[in-house]
Every structure is written in C-alpha cells, then in structure tokens.
Inverse folding.
C-alpha cells in the first residue's frame, strides 16, 4: 500500500520562503507594494486566510469569496504560491453572539470572552457544524485554483482552547473514558479511585478535573489525552472536507513544538499530517536559545522520519508576548533560519510578512517592519531570501549520519505534571535538554524521537527522565540493548505505567532488570545543593538511595561521596546481551556530563558529523545528488571546520578547511 505521504506533493520544489500574509489589514496600495517587495525578497509561499472567516462569511450563511479570489489571482500572477488556511481559528463575532455556548470554559467554569482567537470548545457540535460549513464552502470555491499549494488547518490548535471544562466537554470526556475502559470498574482500577474513597459507581459521576481540589493523577493524565484527541477530531473533520474537494493538496496544521510537554500530543498527531509543520519562537534572554531551537527542530525531524518538515513560523526579530521583547542579535536571523533547514526543514517561513500597526500583535516583528523596506530588517530578509534560493538543491535531502536518539514523550511529560511528586512543578525536558546540548557541543546530531520509534539504526539511545513508559516500549529498549545498542537511562525514568501508577518493587520499575539496579528512595536536592561523587564529579537536582541487583554483573562507575547516601551507587553500567545499559541517578554538572558522554560516545562508536571548533554547529543533509554540510558559528570567535567542498552561500571553494567568521554560516556542498 503506498504511503499516504507519497500521494501528495510538496508545495514548492525548492525551499519555501515567506510567511503569514494578512492583507485584510492593508489598503490596495500597500498590497501592491507587498507584491513588489515579495519579489525582492524571493518569497515563494505565503500563508493566507488564517483569520479571514468573517471576510468569507460576513453574516450567518452569507458567503462571499471575492476578496480571496482577487488575492489568489494576484499572488499567482506574482509567482507566490499559497498555503491556504481554513479560517477556523477566527470565530466571527456574529457567531459568538448567536452561540455563546461554543466558548471554552476554564477549570472554574468561566468562559473565555469573545474576541481573541480559538474561542471555541473542541467538543462543541455547534462549532463543528459552523466551522465545517465555512471550510466546505471555501474548499469547494478554491478547488482547482493554481495558487493553492497546501492547506493549513486552523491555527495552532489548542493555543488557548486546549483544555475545556464546559458541560459538553464533560459529557464528551465521559464518553471518551467509556470507550477507553469499557466498564466503570476498569476506570476505578486504572485511576486508582479507591484512594481517598473517590470510587465511581457510574460514568455519569466522572467530571473533567475542574475546580479546586486534588484530582487523581490517573484522571489528570487521561484528561490531557482526551483534550488532545478532542482537538484532533476537529483537525480530522476539517481534513476530511478538504480531501473531498482537493485530494491532491497536502494538508497540515502548524504545531508548537518546543521542549514539551506540548498542549496536544504532536508525536501522536504527526501521522495525520501530509507534511509536518512547526512554529518556533526563541526566547531572547535564553543564552542557549540556538540549542533550544536545535532541540525543537530535532523533535520535528523525529516526527517526520526520512522526510523533510516545514518551519511554518518563526520571528524575524522580537516577539511581543514576553515581559521584555528583544530583537534578534546581529546575524541571528540567518543562523536561526538555517539551523532549522540544517535539521531537516525544507522551508523558512515567518510570522508575519508585514508588521501590523494595530491589533494585539502590533509590536511583533515581521519581514517588513513598521519602518518599511528601507530598514536593516528588510535588507537582512532579502539577504536571507537570497541564501535560501542558493540552497534549492538541499530540498528533499535527509539529515544524515544520525547515530544517537533521545526519547521524548508528551505522555511522560504530562504524567510527571499530574499529581504530587517528589519535586513539584517539575520541568519535564531539563535532563533531555542537558544531554542534547552536550551532544550538540560535540557536533553529534541527535534525533529526538517517540518511544515507539525503531531504535536499531542508532548506536546510542538516551532515556532522559522518561517518567512514564508502557511495558511494550520498555521491552523495545531492552531488546535494543540486547541486540548490541548502548542505552543511558537517567533518574525518574520508567517510574509509572500508562495509567500513572507506580511500578512497585524498586525503582525504576520499568528498567530495573535492564539496568541491574534497585532504587528505594528519592533524595531530591534544593536548588543550590550539590552531591559529590567518588570519582570527583558532582551532581545537582536529584540523588537516590540505590543498590545494584541481579547477578552482580552491574558495574558501579561512581558512588555518592558523603552525606546519607555515602558509598551508594550513583552511576552504573551493565553488560546486556551484546550491548550496554547505563544508569545515571543524578543530573551531572555540565563538564562532568560532558566527560561521561565523551566516554560513552567513544565506547559506543558514535562519531561526530565533522571536526569543528567550539561553538560551531554542524549538521549534514544528503540526497542522491549531493552532500551538504551546514556550519553555523554561534560564537563570537572565528571558527573552523575540516571539510572540502564549495560553500553554496559564498561560492568559495575550500580544499580541506573552512574558516567561519564570528556569527557566520556556510553550507558546504561536499566533494
Ligand atoms: C494527613 C492526612 C493523611 C495524609 C497525610 C500525608 O495527615 O490525614 O490522609 O494525607 O496528611 O499527606
Ligand atoms: C501509541 C502506540 C505506538 C504508536 C503511537 C502512535 O503510543 O503505543 O505504538 O502507535 O501510539 O500512534
Ligand atoms: C503564533 C501564531 C501567529 C502569531 C505568532 C506570533 O505562532 O500562529 O498567529 O500570533 O504566534 O505571536
């Protein structure tokens, strides 16, 4: 059976370059100027119509697509293709007035106010009917228009409406729970409702975890799953309409993938997308924002194995939702955009094309700033568009030579946040981010993947704080080690099953046998506390009362030194079949984590992508026709890389070594 993804075509044969385009905010003169400036910048794709519902349907049931027709024709005449949005993020005010019950309700039963966006309950049949009606009319109307290259369903589904507690959602949740468990006894068992005597006697007693009380961790986790599924139903319903009218046009929606856990379960949504697309915004004050970007991009690649993905939105400069919104530093525009491309994006798209003068986001940066074309920003955008055009051969290639996988799962992140834990308000992906950064610094590319990914192609798999794991996925990790792989498991992984129930008998229940260790107590640390290890290393955040178990085949690599845990194992290593399993029971301080990974990288045969100087990001993409080494110098020093080939950006040939000016980017087509 052909993969559904093979049946649809990528919107642009080269890399796509452009952004969200909201011409309804502008006069015809400005729109004419936009066409001229898009040409200058090399824009070939725009996302149109994200907030245009009221343009298409100004009154209930009265449709008028003349504005859209004119825009599609104009963009087509100007060789700009269109990623056409369904307008369902933007509920018309008339619909709010007619049906106030579609507004989502927070945990205290307060409805969102009309205005803003995504003002709808994912379970609302009323909203579903109105939204599918406009999608139907839109799809029918534009079917066959040559400008329409792809569909963009709604916008950032869940951004504001991800958790609804209205009566309709409550009934839908009851239904979802019934479908999942079949009987109320099974629900009581799965959620452990005998605790505090919360046992249900019928499905009608089940509520969403609303209001002010301590809800059960099992219920909380299932409500996250339900909420993700409820939004996915809306996506699927819209997609079904689009596929009926325009079967050959790819359909996606823009994810908000960061460190996770995300508002919805993107890894489980990814298969529903013809092309997986992301919106990514860096946080200016984060000194390691380029590495956070790399983590998100590597997650995106994990969700689209073997295929490129799309950067659907990022910022040309400052955002406007942080307390202080700083513009990007000099050169970051190109470094950030091309880092996404290096990591598998076949597109560089922005929010948005032209900066709005009014509305909530009137100070959000754009490709054309308030200052207009005569600005540093627009010049930089034009230069970036030129670079993106020079990289057209990269389109369709794959990120190559990835030998390390890092497991990541929203469900694990949700579970760790559901209910009270040894450390409350935990940040799920901290350990993952620390390991990812250490690999980044060694020019080792890492796929950030879901636990159901086939691991056998990797030399090393890191399981960082993967709190929840199913028996099936734990077994896959064990099989991988047995077959010769190396696994590093870090603290608070494999603690609960899919119901958020502790696997008793010694921690970490799911990995105890694989690792040959048995933990009895968690000893979390306060922010400033450190634990010393007997090999001279130190750890923070966490320690635990641990022992080796099994046949005495577990090697203790380092022990706790001093304090209550003195002499107890802290880091262990065990031979498992043809492979190895490491356990790291604390967060090692940076240089010690680097030392650990230096050893594991060497022992497991992992090789860097290229030899580079510190601060240079290196990622390779390859296809049948070429090999492209992306080199991004994030440091303020001159950098270098050992490589032979031609820099596609500058045209310069390099015999064996590239020098990189501070902050510069090179993309070497390798010999
Ligand atoms: C109180 C309650 C117990 C339990 C403990 C521990 O003493 O009576 O039911 O909750 O706190 O938190
Ligand atoms: C679940 C299953 C996996 C996979 C994913 C994605 O977690 O366990 O095998 O199917 O969902 O749908
Ligand atoms: C998101 C949205 C855009 C815009 C940007 C910038 O990504 O999809 O509509 O709001 O953020 O804030």
């Amino acid at each position: 059976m052909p993969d559904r993804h093979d049946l649809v075509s990528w919107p642009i044969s080269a890399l796509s370059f452009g952004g969200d385009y909201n011409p309804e905010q502008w006069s015809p003169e400005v729109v004419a100027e936009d066409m001229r400036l898009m040409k200058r910048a090399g824009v070939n794709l725009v996302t149109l119509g994200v907030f245009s519902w009221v343009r298409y349907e100004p009154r209930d049931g009265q449709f008028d697509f003349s504005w859209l027709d004119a825009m599609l024709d104009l963009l087509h005449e100007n060789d700009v293709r269109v990623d056409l949005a369904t307008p369902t993020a933007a509920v018309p005010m008339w619909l709010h007035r007619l049906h106030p019950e579609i507004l989502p309700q927070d945990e205290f039963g307060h409805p969102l106010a009309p205005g803003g966006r995504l003002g709808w309950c994912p379970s609302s049949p009323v909203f579903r009917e109105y939204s599918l009606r406009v999608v139907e009319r839109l799809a029918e109307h534009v079917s066959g228009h040559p400008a329409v290259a792809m569909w963009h369903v709604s916008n950032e589904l869940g951004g504001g409406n991800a958790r609804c507690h209205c009566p309709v959602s409550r009934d839908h949740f009851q239904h979802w729970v019934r479908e999942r468990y079949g009987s109320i006894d099974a629900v009581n068992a799965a959620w452990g409702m005998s605790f505090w005597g919360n046992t249900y006697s019928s499905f009608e007693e089940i509520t969403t975890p609303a209001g002010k009380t301590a809800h059960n961790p099992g219920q909380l986790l299932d409500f996250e799953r339900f909420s993700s599924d409820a939004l996915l139903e809306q996506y699927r319903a819209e997609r079904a309409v689009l596929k009926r009218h325009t079967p050959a046009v790819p359909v996606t929606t823009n994810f908000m993938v960061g460190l996770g856990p995300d508002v919805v379960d993107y890894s489980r949504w990814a298969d529903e997308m013809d092309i997986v697309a992301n919106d990514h915004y860096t946080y200016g004050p984060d000194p390691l924002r380029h590495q956070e970007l790399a983590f998100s991009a590597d997650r995106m690649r994990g969700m689209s194995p073997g295929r490129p993905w799309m950067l659907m939105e990022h910022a040309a400069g400052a955002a406007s939702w942080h307390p202080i919104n700083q513009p990007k530093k000099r050169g970051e525009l190109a470094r950030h955009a091309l880092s996404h491309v290096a990591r598998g994006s076949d597109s560089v798209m922005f929010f948005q094309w032209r900066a709005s003068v009014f509305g909530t986001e009137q100070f959000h940066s754009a490709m054309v700033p308030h200052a207009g074309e005569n600005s540093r920003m627009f010049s930089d955008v034009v230069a970036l568009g030129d670079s993106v055009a020079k990289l057209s051969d990269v389109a369709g290639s794959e990120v190559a030579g990835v030998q390390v996988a890092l497991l990541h799962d929203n469900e694990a992140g949700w579970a760790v946040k559901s209910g009270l834990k040894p450390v409350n308000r935990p940040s799920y992906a901290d350990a993952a981010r620390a390991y990812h950064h250490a690999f980044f610094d060694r020019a080792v590319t890492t796929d950030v993947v879901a636990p159901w990914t086939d691991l056998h192609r990797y030399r090393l798999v890191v399981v960082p704080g993967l709190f929840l794991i199913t028996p099936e996925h734990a077994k896959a990790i064990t099989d991988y080690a047995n077959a010769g792989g190396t696994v590093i498991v870090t603290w608070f992984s494999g603690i609960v099953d899919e119901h958020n129930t502790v696997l008793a008998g010694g921690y970490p229940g799911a990995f105890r046998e694989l690792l040959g260790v048995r933990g009895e107590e968690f000893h979390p640390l306060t922010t400033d506390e450190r634990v010393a290890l007997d090999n001279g290393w130190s750890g923070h955040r966490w320690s635990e009362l641990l022992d080796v178990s099994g046949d005495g085949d577990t090697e203790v690599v380092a022990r706790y030194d001093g304090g209550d845990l003195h002499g107890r194992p802290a880091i262990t290593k065990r031979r498992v079949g043809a492979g190895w399993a490491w356990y790291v029971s604390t967060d090692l301080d940076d240089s010690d984590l680097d030392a650990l990974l230096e050893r594991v990288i060497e022992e497991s045969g992992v090789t860097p992508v290229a030899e580079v100087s510190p601060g240079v990001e290196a990622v390779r993409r390859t296809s049948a026709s070429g090999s492209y080494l992306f080199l991004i110098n994030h440091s303020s020093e001159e950098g270098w890389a050992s490589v032979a080939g031609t820099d596609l950006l500058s045209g310069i040939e390099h015999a064996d070594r590239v020098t990189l000016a501070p902050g510069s980017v090179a993309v070497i087509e390798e010999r």
